[in-house]
TrEMBL record, chains A, B:
One matching Pfam family: cNMP_binding
UniProt keyword annotation of Transcription regulation present: yes
Keywords of this entry: DNA-binding, Transcription, Transcription regulation
SUPFAM superfamilies hit by this protein: cAMP-binding domain-like (SSF51206), Winged helix' DNA-binding domain (SSF46785)
Source domain of life: Bacteria
Any one GO MF annotation of this record: DNA binding
Originating species: Methylobacterium durans
InterPro entries (UniProt xref): cNMP-bd_dom (IPR000595), cNMP-bd_dom_sf (IPR018490), HTH_CRP (IPR012318), RmlC-like_jellyroll (IPR014710), WH-like_DNA-bd_sf (IPR036388), WH_DNA-bd_sf (IPR036390)
Protein name: Crp/Fnr family transcriptional regulator
Start and end residues of each HTH crp-type domain: 145-219
Length: 268, 268
DNA sequence: CGCCATCTTGACAATAGTCAAGTCGGGTGG
DNA sequence: CCACCCGACTTGACTATTGTCAAGATGGCG
């Protein structure tokens, strides 16, 4: 079974056998991390990129009042801040929510993957943009949606994302997070989250059993939340259509540029 | 006087004379756009990249209820979605808030700039990451900060950003947006924004006069808002320090990769 | 001079937060 | 094997912030 990181990238660009092999090599060095550990801490200069192979993690910011705000979820197959090394230090942290199996990848390897494998580079860019789109959707949601719809929207989003990596069966998925964590995500108090979840259960939209979540009526839940999956860019064909592929082009142009230099200097 | 796009990029990477020349060429084709016009509309397949040379624009999302949520401000010197072409369609719009002078750049040109000018590529990446950092900060703010601090925080952020491109004089800057737009930004009702601004004036933190904003006590305002400018990555040295420069490296590696291919095929 | 967008005000309602006191349930150690 | 413990969840009463509605003031611009 291929790992979920590769599976996820294949949704965004078609990968060759060589691409896949390179990715397998890059993610071969895995480590087990317990729950509630920081992979990268705020104000660090990041040293490694990480890919989550199993478990849930999140990007979060610590607040002046001691609380925390969760700004993104990392699910199996997600890389975290693969590109973070461009900025000198982190302004947020990455922490595990559950025990995780993660691959630690030196930035050097990321660079090499990007350089030798245009398809991988393209898939990574795609991921960055989708992450940003999710952020936008959250920003809109936190500001404008009432608490119940906001929570429902989040549940829909997680379902679609988990579905894309095969972690949803029969409208049901494990959501191994506490109500407090959900509160830190939605910008609500944990008390209010509790009440909202009760309402969703009463409406027979969801069912909960020990960290598992059962979606009883996904269509009704999506309607209720006003959820439209566009922004996740999952069903738009990924790398399998003929749309613009800037990174491949950039690679070609960079080659041409360097060749031009060489012609002038006449070296080898 | 160099244009502000170049000035802004120079904060992020040191540019050579050739880099600057290429950027000047790329942004030579300018157009005047009136206020409240879309540069790119939601659901479009983007066709051109834009750079704002004068005026204010924003990224916004239309809401199901007909309202809109402003998720980012574009100030002079900012590019908008220079990389948007990777995703097949926009999930948000770009619109002007004031009359703007914009440069329209074909994606092809962006690709060429990125390919032939590693420093420019690096600066563009830097911009993408800073934009994302701003988004994170907003997400936290909308969720957790009370309305008055949220508005104050926004005013601090705009001041620092405008300062970086020389548009702040004597703690004073023009903020040419309506209270309704500010409300769409902060996720508040326009009525409440009005009251919050009145409070800030009563506290003698700011003064307003026809679309101009005067910061009376920037230190007190920052303290009040809990504003810390880290996340804008403005004073961290930009391209003038010896930290990691992945894009330059990627260019080099890509060259090596292609040369390897050529060696094998033996083609000229 | 008058129009229209913008801003302002007041009264009231609704959403969500806070505080404080339980309950529940799984895991640990005796 | 059972009791206890602790984190997670639940509940109720009360408060605070913010939204909504509706009406009116202001002020630049034609």
């Amino acid at each position: 079974m291929t790992n979920l990181f590769i599976r996820k990238l294949e949704l965004r660009a078609s990968l060759s056998e060589a691409d896949r092999h390179a990715l397998e090599q890059a993610t071969a060095k895995v480590m087990q991390v317990e729950a509630n550990r920081d992979l990268i801490a705020q104000a660090d200069a990041p040293e490694h990129a990480f890919v989550i192979l199993e478990g849930f993690a999140c990007r979060y910011k610590l607040l002046p009042d001691g609380g925390r705000s969760i700004v993104a979820y990392l699910i199996p197959g997600d890389g975290c801040d693969l590109h973070a090394s461009i900025l000198p230090r982190m302004v947020h942290s990455i922490g595990t929510l559950t025990p995780c199996l993660v691959a630690r990848i030196p930035y050097q390897t990321i660079k090499e993957l990007a350089a030798y494998h245009p398809n991988i580079y393209k898939a990574l860019w795609w991921s960055v943009l989708v992450d940003e789109a999710i952020l936008l959707e959250w920003l809109v949601g936190v500001g404008r949606r009432p608490a119940d719809k906001q929570v429902a929207h989040f549940l829909c989003e997680m379902m679609v994302r988990l579905q894309a990596v095969g972690l949803v069966a029969e409208n049901s998925y494990r959501l191994p997070i506490t109500q407090s964590e959900l509160a830190d995500t939605a910008g609500l108090s944990h008390v209010h989250v509790n009440r909202v979840l009760q309402d969703l259960r009463k409406e027979r939209l969801i069912e909960q059993k020990r960290r598992g979540l059962l979606i009883l009526d996904i269509e009704r839940l999506k309607t209720f939340a006003g959820f439209v999956a566009d922004y996740l860019h999952l069903n738009t064909g990924g790398g399998h259509q003929g749309f613009y592929e800037p990174l491949t082009d950039v690679a070609k142009l960079q080659l041409k540029a360097r060749q031009g230099e060489q012609d002038q200097t006449g070296s080898a």
